[in-house]
UniProtKB/TrEMBL annotation:
One of its GO terms (biological process) is glycerophospholipid biosynthetic process. Pfam families: PcrB (PF01884). It comes from Dyadobacter luteus. Its EC number is 2.5.1.41. This is Geranylgeranylglyceryl phosphate synthase.
Amino acid sequence: MKAANHKIAELLSVRSVDKIKSFAVLIDPDKVNFDTFPAFLKSAEQHGVDFFFVGGSLITDYSIRELVAAIHDHTNIPAILFPGSSLHIDSSADAILFLSLISGRNPDFLIGQQVVAAPLLRQSGIEILPTGYMLIESGRMTTVSYISNTTPIPRNKPGIAACTALAGEMLGLRNIFLDAGSGAEYPVPGPVIAAVRQTVTTPIIVGGGIDSYEKAFAALEAGADVVVVGNGIEQNPELLPEIAASVKTFNSQLLKA
Ligand SMILES: CC(C)=CCC/C(C)=C/CC/C(C)=C/CC/C(C)=C/COP(=O)(O)OP(=O)(O)O
Ligand SMILES: O=P(O)(O)OC[C@@H](O)CO
Ligand SMILES: [Mg+2]
């Protein structure tokens, strides 16, 4: 067993306290083209991507190990598992978002998958990032809502989101992830992010439907510490430098203030 390491947890927490924002790119293992992936990875590194999140609600092509190896071969960017289930674990990753789906009431995603994964994770020595995962309603049914069989929090109820995040923090979860769901029609609303920001002190990760400079900037302004972008970049790789610029501009404004 490897010694417990808290490198990424510490980075997330220090950056959150210092109000330095981060950019995470979601890599869907089913959608990676291994011929063009090295060039994509180099471009991600050049543009200052902070983290890769690797995962999906439903993975049909078990290429996580190969994918993480490519990330390690071509970049120094941490590969963090973003699992849809306990089947999506690979010990070669740098860390795992140890999610509990606290916006839902499905015991399998609140604690069931975690019980199955716990002994494997302990053996792997991978860094554990205990994370309260909250789905926010985003216009149409998302893969994650369907697969998890859970109802997202209504997008016009920031109070429910804040109380859910607070309960997660009180339970000891160290990060809160507000997700509109991959390919969401509408991203997580600013007032929902702001209400959670005012309520908890943990780092806040926000994703789902962020497909422009402005949407990323709005999420950061509302209080997100990390913005996650997947689908938008899959569809248009030019979005990667655009989001990177949004995060950089936000961070440089902060330095000048
Ligand atoms: C802790 C362990 C081992 C498992 C956690 C299991 C839990 C609680 C998962 C939460 C629910 C879930 C299914 C999360 C998956 C989130 C994810 C990686 C989404 C990425 O997007 P997709 O939902 O795959 O969308 P596409 O349809 O665009 O591919
Ligand atoms: O694919 P997108 O819509 O960018 O969403 C990213 C991630 O938050 C999904 O869980
Ligand atoms: Mg997917």
